[in-house]
């Protein structure tokens, strides 16, 4: 409960201030909570902040806290200007500047505010604080036609004072994109010169050069790959090992490097230490996206060096990691198929081929299905029903891969009572099934009798079925009555997208379109157009979100 949480926080902060009345951060935090729960207090709190600043103009924490309030919740940035100038001159190395980063990034979107920041604040920063704020300067530079002289000045500053920052390499590579329309030997020659200026320390430049020379000169490419992984960048280690696998240039050192990546450098525990503030479910998903790639590369490297049994164990772990993130990676299953074949594991080979289906189209799809059918009958006999089996496997694949996109918070109106609105936010805690349709749409009408079975099936579950149309009630209501009179009732709750905002929010370009949203308001599945058997697909997807 949000109110209960805020009340608990206010109680703790008040207790802190009773014991330590000069804890200015606690005081500003209390004021921010008070204003967020009661916006009528804005004038009163503005007066309090102004008064405190007047009384405590030499107190660093008061001034930083006041700037947070002025730039943030009070939305009165003009009052922060003189204070910011004083803080930049008196406390250029204070870590408290990190608390203002978000506010100053927003503040400097206005050109006049940016000029003030660039001329009156940024030059006074301590070396380390300046580095943290360089993104504001660069954002402005690249918001228009970049000036190479200005970029070169920043590159020289970064190379002199911040040789180990990745920003240096990224800026040099950006400059190269401006100068060259495509990569050629002249591009490589100039980039080598830049790399030498950085004393061969920058991994991003090294990786760019390695990529360029991979198919031209492996010896040169290999040298740059080695330089790119000096700081143990997981992504670059993975790229190096994978490319070496494809080029048949693997060695024991690279195999061990790939193993070290998944067991030491990129474990979930280490990822958590760096990203502890991300909620657990999101953290697992984010970690698994990269971990699945790293495990896949290790498995493929083992396969390439004929360590088939271990490769099979690792590729199966890769698949289990993909299940956490609901991501699809056709390359994983392509590798799994080859690794399983090398191990004469036909069950795993069949599993891999079935999971390859979403990644292929046209003739490849037909060829793959024929291979799956042949292996299926080889394993289970000619009398087993392949079509029934492949259909059930198709459902498993459908519910496995999810979109994980924030759903648009729509407002739609009851077709029978247009003054009554419903929002997605009000349905939080329930699975929401949306059907975008119209009375004139033939395929929409064709599926009504089929999809209307699902609301009955899930009537005792926390699931809501909503059919959304852009058509006005005087068109829709007679249509629905006619359906009912002909024993074909539309059992979804029918709502009117009066302003078309729901259709726009979900980027509806064709109907029917079906969208399934989980209990947390995240869109997980979307189906566009008429699909035979859509009612079964929706049913399986809803069941997966109820677990």
Concise synopsis of the structure shown:
About 65% of the residues lie in helices and about 10% in strands. By secondary structure, it is of the alpha+beta class.
Structure explained in plain terms:
With 547 residues, the chain is α+β, with helices and mostly antiparallel strands. The protein contains 27 helices and eight strands. Strands 1-8-7-4-5-6-2-3 form an eight-stranded mixed β-sheet. Strand 5, helix 25 and strand 6 form a beta-alpha-beta unit. Helix 2 packs parallel to helix 4, helix 11 runs antiparallel to helix 12 and helix 14 packs parallel to helix 17. The model has no long low-confidence stretch (mean pLDDT 92).
Largest sheet: spatial strand order: 1-8-7-4-5-6-2-3
Mean pLDDT: 92
Determine the N-to-C terminus distance: 24 Å
pLDDT below 50 for ≥5 consecutive residues: which ranges?
none
Largest sheet: 8 strands, mixed
Number of strands: 8
Q: What is the CA-atom radius of gyration, in angstroms?
A: 30 Å
- Report the β-strand fraction as a percent range: 5-15%
Helix content: 55-70%
* Basic shape: globular
Number of helices: 27
Secondary-structure-based class equals alpha+beta
Question: Topology, please?
Answer:
Blueprint: H1 2-19, H2 24-37, H3 42-55, H4 60-71, H5 81-90, H6 101-107, H7 111-120, H8 127-141, H9 148-161, H10 166-179, H11 185-197, H12 203-213, H13 218-228, H14 234-246, H15 252-265, H16 268-274, H17 280-304, H18 308-325, H19 330-342, H20 346-356, H21 362-380, H22 386-400, E1 405-406, E2 411-414, E3 417-423, E4 431-436, H23 442-451, H24 453-457, E5 463-469, H25 473-485, E6 493-496, H26 501-505, E7 513-517, E8 522-528, H27 534-546
Parallel strand pairs: 4-5, 5-6
Antiparallel strand pairs: 1-8, 2-3, 2-6, 4-7, 7-8
Helix pairs in contact: 1-2, 2-4, 3-4, 9-10, 10-11, 10-12, 11-12, 12-13, 14-15, 14-17, 15-17, 17-18, 17-19, 18-19, 19-20, 20-21, 22-27
């Amino acid at each position: 409960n949000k109110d209960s949480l805020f009340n608990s926080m206010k109680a703790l902060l008040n207790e802190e201030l009773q014991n330590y009345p000069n804890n200015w951060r606690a005081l500003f935090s209390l004021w921010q909570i008070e204003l967020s729960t009661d916006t009528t207090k804005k004038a009163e709190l503005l007066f309090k902040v102004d008064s405190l600043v007047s009384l405590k103009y030499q107190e660093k924490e008061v001034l930083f806290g006041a700037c947070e309030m002025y730039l943030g919740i009070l939305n009165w940035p003009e009052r922060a200007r003189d204070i910011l100038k004083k803080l930049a001159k008196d406390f250029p190395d204070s870590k408290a500047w990190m608390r203002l980063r978000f506010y100053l990034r927003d503040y400097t979107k206005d050109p006049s505010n940016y000029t003030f920041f660039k001329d009156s604040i940024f030059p006074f920063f301590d070396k380390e604080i300046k580095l943290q704020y360089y993104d504001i300067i660069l954002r402005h530079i690249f918001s228009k036609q970049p000036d190479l002289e200005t970029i070169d000045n920043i590159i020289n500053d970064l190379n002199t004072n911040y040789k180990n920052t990745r920003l240096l390499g990224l800026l040099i590579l950006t400059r190269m994109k401006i100068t060259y329309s495509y990569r050629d030997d002249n591009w490589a020659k100039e980039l080598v010169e830049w790399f030498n200026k950085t004393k061969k320390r920058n991994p991003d430049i090294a990786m760019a050069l390695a990529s360029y020379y991979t198919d031209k000169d492996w010896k040169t490419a290999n040298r740059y790959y080695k330089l790119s992984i000096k700081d143990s960048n997981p992504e670059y280690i993975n790229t190096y090992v994978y490319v070496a696998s494809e080029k048949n240039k693997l060695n024991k050192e690279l195999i061990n490097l790939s193993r070290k990546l998944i067991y030491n450098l990129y474990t979930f525990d280490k990822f958590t230490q760096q990203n502890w503030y991300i909620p657990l479910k999101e953290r697992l998903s984010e970690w698994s996206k990269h971990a699945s790639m790293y495990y896949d590369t290790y498995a493929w490297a083992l396969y390439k060096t004929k360590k088939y049994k271990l490769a099979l164990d690792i590729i199966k772990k890769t698949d289990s990691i993909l299940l956490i993130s609901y991501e699809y990676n056709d390359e994983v299953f392509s590798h799994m198929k080859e690794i399983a074949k090398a191990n004469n594991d036909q069950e795993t080979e069949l599993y891999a081929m079935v999971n390859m289906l979403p990644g292929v189209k046209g003739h490849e799809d037909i060829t793959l299905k024929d291979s799956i059918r042949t292996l299926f009958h080889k394993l289970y006999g000619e009398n087993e029903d392949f079509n029934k089996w492949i259909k059930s496997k198709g459902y498993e694949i459908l519910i496995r891969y999810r979109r994980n996109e924030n759903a648009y918070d729509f407002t739609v109106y009851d077709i029978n009572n247009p003054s009554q609105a419903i929002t997605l936010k009000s349905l939080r805690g329930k699975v929401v099934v949306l059907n975008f349709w119209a009375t004139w749409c033939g395929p929409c009408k064709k599926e009504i009798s089929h999809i209307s079975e699902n609301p009955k099936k899930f009537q005792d579950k926390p699931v809501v079925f909503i059919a959304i149309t852009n058509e006005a009630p005087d068109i829709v209501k007679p249509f629905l009555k006619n359906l009912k009179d002909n024993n074909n009732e539309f059992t979804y709750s029918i709502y009117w997208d009066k302003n078309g905002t729901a259709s726009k929010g979900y980027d509806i370009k064709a109907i029917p379109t079906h969208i399934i949203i989980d209990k947390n308001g995240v869109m997980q599945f979307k189906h566009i157009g008429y699909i035979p058997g859509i009612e079964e697909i929706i049913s399986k997807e809803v069941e997966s979100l109820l677990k």
